[in-house]
Design brief:
Order of helices and strands: HHEEHEEHHEEEEEEEEE
Largest sheet: 7 strands, mixed
Helix content: 25-40%
Number of strands: 13
Mean pLDDT: 74
Strand order of the largest sheet: 7-8-12-11-10-9-13
Structural class: alpha+beta
Distance between the termini: 129 Å
Number of helices: 5
Low-confidence stretches: 1-10, 54-92
Radius of gyration: 44 Å
Length: 286
């Protein structure tokens, strides 16, 4: 059949057939209410996942920044800082640029207070460290015996013993490099010195009744014997005790030193010019 426009009408029939098929298909589909709650929950879950991922990324960045900071940040003056847990030994931690100081003994003589002080310097590792150390030593009025150039001091620890009276320096009676082993051999005494003479050498009592020296940490008793037969024994101080009251005859540890230092003082009123010193007891097994 032909339509009024001269075209076949079978096109319109085909369209109607398609419409009928679509309607029948639609009838077979159940359309319910929109699942609003499920959609909201799904959206929240997706947002929560996004926030979790973002937070994790932020933690990774913060952790990286913390690692970088701990690996080498700067202090308030812009200097690089290395964390203590991984930092190598520095001149400050090894005390290369300043000595470790210990008051070994103190007392009163001729109405004046006196103190024996030990100064121990760590071994510089190179010429620049040695040069800086020598400069600082000069500030303490110290010069290592036999050292003529900074290179001579490299690899050598050094120690000094000083006698102070009423806060002023009287004498430096020890000036030597630390032994290779860090202390005298077991049972031996090193650097035994008699001192404590009054400041006026012409004084009637020119007694040198104080003896100071160094021993291995195994020494349990040191006996000082003066030329008149007077004997004084020094034993190790109780661990952790400092100087208490007036003088005590003791063997003490010294900061920065493997060797212990001992002091003996003879009674007043005697003319003590010299003394001999022996380690009379050592730790078992040494």
């Amino acid at each position: 059949m032909m339509g009024g426009d001269g075209q076949a009408e079978h096109g319109g029939a085909a369209d109607r057939d398609i419409a009928v098929l679509l309607a029948e298909a639609a009838d077979g589909v159940r359309i319910g209410a929109v699942p609003y709650r499920e959609l909201v929950r799904g959206g929240r879950r997706r947002r929560a996942r996004r926030w979790t991922l973002a937070a994790a990324a932020a933690l990774v960045v913060a952790g990286s920044a913390g690692t970088l900071a701990s690996a080498g940040g700067t202090d308030g003056e812009g200097r690089r800082v290395v964390p203590a847990a991984t930092a190598p030994a520095t001149p400050d931690s090894r005390q290369v640029d300043k000595p470790r100081s210990t008051a070994v003994a103190r007392g009163t003589d001729h109405g004046e207070g006196w103190t024996v002080e030990a100064l121990v310097w760590a071994a510089p590792r190179n010429v620049p460290e040695a040069r800086a150390q020598l400069k600082t030593m000069r500030g303490y009025a110290l010069a290592p015996a036999g050292i003529h150039a900074p290179s001579d001091l490299v690899g050598k620890g050094w120690y000094y013993g000083r006698l102070m009276r009423d806060g002023g320096l009287v004498s430096t009676f020890m000036n030597a490099p630390v032994e290779k082993e860090g202390a005298p051999p077991d049972g031996q005494v090193a650097d035994a010195v008699t001192t404590l003479a009054p400041e006026n050498p012409a004084a009637a009592d020119d007694s040198r009744r104080l003896v100071v020296g160094r021993v291995a940490p195994t020494a349990l008793e040191v006996t000082c014997t003066w030329d008149d037969g007077t004997k004084v024994k020094a034993a190790p101080a109780a661990p952790g005790t400092g100087l208490v009251g007036d003088f005590e005859d003791l063997v003490r540890p010294v900061d920065g030193s493997r060797a212990n230092w001992f002091t003996c003082v003879a009674p007043k009123g005697e003319d003590h010019r010299s003394a001999t010193v022996k380690v009379t007891k050592v730790a078992k097994g040494s």
